[in-house]
Structures are given as C-alpha cells and as structure tokens.
Amino acid sequence: MPSLLWFRRDLRLRDHPALVAAADSDQDVLACFVLDPRLEASSGARRLQFLGDSLRQLDSDLGGRLLVTRGRPEQRISQLAKAIGASSVHISEDFAPYGRRRDERVREKLGPVPLVATGSPYLVSPGRVTKDDDTPYKVFTPFFRRWREVGWRAPAQSGAETARWFDPAEVSVQRCEIPDPGATLDLAAGEEAAQSEWEAFVDDGLQRYAADRNRPDLSGTSRMSAHLKFGTIHPRTLVSDLNLRQRSDAAYLRELAFRDFYAAVLHHWPASGWWNWNRNFDSIETDTDAAAERRFQAWKAGTTGYPIVDAGMRQLREVGFMHNRVRMIVASFLVKDLHLPWQWGARWFLEQLVDGDMANNQHGWQWCAGSGTDAAPYFRVFNPLTQGEKFDPAGDYIRRWVPELRDADDPHLRKGDRPPGYPEPIVDHAAERSEALRRYGNIG
C-alpha cells in the first residue's frame, strides 16, 4: 500500500524528516499539495507568486510528480488517501492555530488512516521549551537559554533519492493549476534559490551580519525569511553552517531563536494572533474614526511626511518586503504617533509581505505596541527622524524608495526646505509622543 506525503510549509526535498519517514515505509509515495481556498484568500498576490514559484520548482525536482489540487484539505486529503489506498499520510507538524484545527479535521476525516507528523518548520518545535514546572516562557532571554540547552537535531538525511514516487497520472482526483498571479518578486523562490542565496550570504555577508543587520541601506541580512516561511530551506540547514564562536553567527542564531519563541507564544496563547497577549492593554484608547482612517491610508501609501516611514511603506507596497528595523519604526509610528490599533497594521503587513508569518508578524507588532511578551516599555516611542539618521545615515535607503527626496541635500529633512511634491508631516511627533504617554499611562 502506498503512502501520501502532504507538502505544506516544507516545499523542499532536502532536510525533510516527513519525506524520510514516508520513504522509510518501503512503499510508493504520492507527493501532493492542497491549495486551501481560505489561505489563498488571505494571501496577497506576491505571497501567492512565491508559493507558486516554489511549487513549480518542487514539481520539477520531483520529475513532474507533484499532484496539486484545490479544496478543503479534509476533503482533498481523504479523497487522495482513498484513491490510492494509502496506509498513512505524512506531514511536517503545524503548530499555528489554523493549522492545528485543519489537521484535526483531516485526522477525523481520514478515520483509520494515520496522519503521521514528523518534524516541523522550527529548530525546536513549540511546546518543547518550557520551565522546570512545564509552564511556557513569557520572556525571551530565559527561553533562549533553555532553547539552547534543549538543542536540535542535525539536518535529516535526504529521502528523495530512495523514495519510489507514485505517478499522479494514475490518481483520479481533480488537479488544478499552480498559482501564477503574475506578480513581480525581488527574490527568487524555490529550494534551489534558497540554497544559492544562503551560500552566497555565508560566503559574503554573514561575517558582517552583527554590524550591518540594522542598516536598511546595506545588504546586511540573509533574506531567508520568505524561504523559512514556505520551508524551501530548513533552519537546521542554516545552523549547520554557523560557527557559534563568531559574533555574527551567534547573532544570527539569536534571530532564529526569536522565530521559535514567537511560534511557541502563539502555540501556547493562540488568541494572541489578533488579541493583546497582555489583556491589560485592551483598555488602551485608540483612534478608529474617519480621521484615523485617513491617517491609516497615508501610512499605507507612504505619504506621512516622515522619510524613513515613507521609504519603508513604499518598499513594502512595491516589493512585498521591508527591512526588520524599518518594520519596527513604521509599527511604532502607527501605534504611538497615529494612535491606531496595532491590528490594522498587522493585517496590512500580512496582506503585503511575501514572508508574512502569523507568529512573527503579530508578536512583532505587539512588541512595538507594548502589549506582548518582552514588549518595548510603553514610554519608548521611536522618533522617526533620529531613527532614520541612525540607521540610514547617508539617506541611501530613503533616496531609493522616495523619489521626491533623491536630490535632497538632507533626505532626513532635519534642515533646509521640503522638496516640492513631498508632503508635510501628517502629525507632530513631539505632540503625539506626549499623547501616547498619556494614553499608556491610563492603562489598568
């Protein structure tokens, strides 16, 4: 009897424990992917493009033997299992709230056919890192120490060469086209591109990572976030190339630990996807009237009159990516200068980002809003002008994304005239900082 390998956030053939488990069963393996209409509807065109390009690469690597179908997973996976008489269905475990609910529905529909979860998208899966009393961590630093003690396995041996792939042409289940919305990406998708991009970063970027990672004007990051989101590369593969005695390598590991931490927070507190992790913040006063909506539209369009904010928002709109330091700046601006709900910004990011990930995105926003774990102190309000000067000192990032400021002597606009066509600031930062502190001071 054959087995079914259901690809999800693991669109690769290397370092794939679920693939190894399916291949080790000494059975033919049918590789499939289910396009879930609910996830399609919540994904922007660029994220669907990255997904589609990754699926095309995976299908090519499988010699055209990836079966792609559209529908509710509980219906499609049970149909596929029945159609081939599957003895088991293999997956990488999903820990996000939606994924867990979906997998429970699939298990129920499969009946006696086991849904076998092997491995996950993380270095250390959510739920494995807990305190001595088995309760989850609420603060990153002690989590990080225990996370390193728990440790992770070496990359899995490849199972693609030993697997006997089932020909999907023999399966009488409706197939669909792989998505191709025609969106332009600034990052190549798929496993081959992920490996190539990572190797280039290790050769010519990793040693500068600790110094350059906060500089949006420099190519100081690995750009692995979208590849990690879709699993075209596994974090174990990345860590196997790190020398943790080096400062930059250790700094990179810490960022991977944050990814695992936020996944664990969402796992243990699933409501924190859209609600304040610290429910005391439910009482904070936010603006949601027509004037607030106009300010929100200016923020989305990158027409706030604050150069570093506008550069980040235009980069997001144009290519579906934003440097992490700038994500923090624009998030602080929305929450503490515009006094808008963090959920408004988080939703826009998920619509636009190629690497949009529920755990990372929502808890990064809550960090800025002060309502999450390890939150920035409420009295810390990023000044968009000084942040721009500090992290984009020559203004190269601003000039790249805000054409009205390309010829400005001072693209940060701390002195001199404001160029024609570039808007005046929509708010006064000093005044709004005082207002934010007043509102935060009234919490609880």
List keywords for this structure.
single chain; 444 residues; mainly alpha; Rossmann fold; Serine Threonine Protein Phosphatase 5, Tetratricopeptide repeat; DNA Cyclobutane Dipyrimidine Photolyase, subunit A, domain 3; 3 domains; six-stranded parallel β-sheet; 6 strands; globular; Crypto/Photolyase_FAD-like_sf; Rossmann-like_a/b/a_fold; flavoprotein; FAD; DNA binding
How does this structure look, described?
The chain folds into three domains: 3-119, HUPs (Rossmann fold, 3-Layer(aba) Sandwich), CATH 3.40.50.620; 122-155 and 192-268, Serine Threonine Protein Phosphatase 5, Tetratricopeptide repeat, CATH 1.25.40; 279-442, DNA Cyclobutane Dipyrimidine Photolyase, subunit A, domain 3 (Orthogonal Bundle). It is 47% helix and 6% strand. It contains 19 helices and six strands. The protein has helices spanning 17-24, 37-41, 45-61, 73-84, 97-110, 140-150, 191-204, 209-212, 225-230, 235-239, 247-268, 290-301, 307-319, 324-337, 342-352, 358-369, 384-391, 396-401, 429-441; strands at 3-7, 28-35, 66-70, 89-91, 115-117, 164-165. Strands 1, 2, 3, 4, 5 and 6 form a six-stranded parallel β-sheet that branches. Strand 4 (89-91), helix 5 (97-110) and strand 5 form a beta-alpha-beta unit. The mean pLDDT is 95.
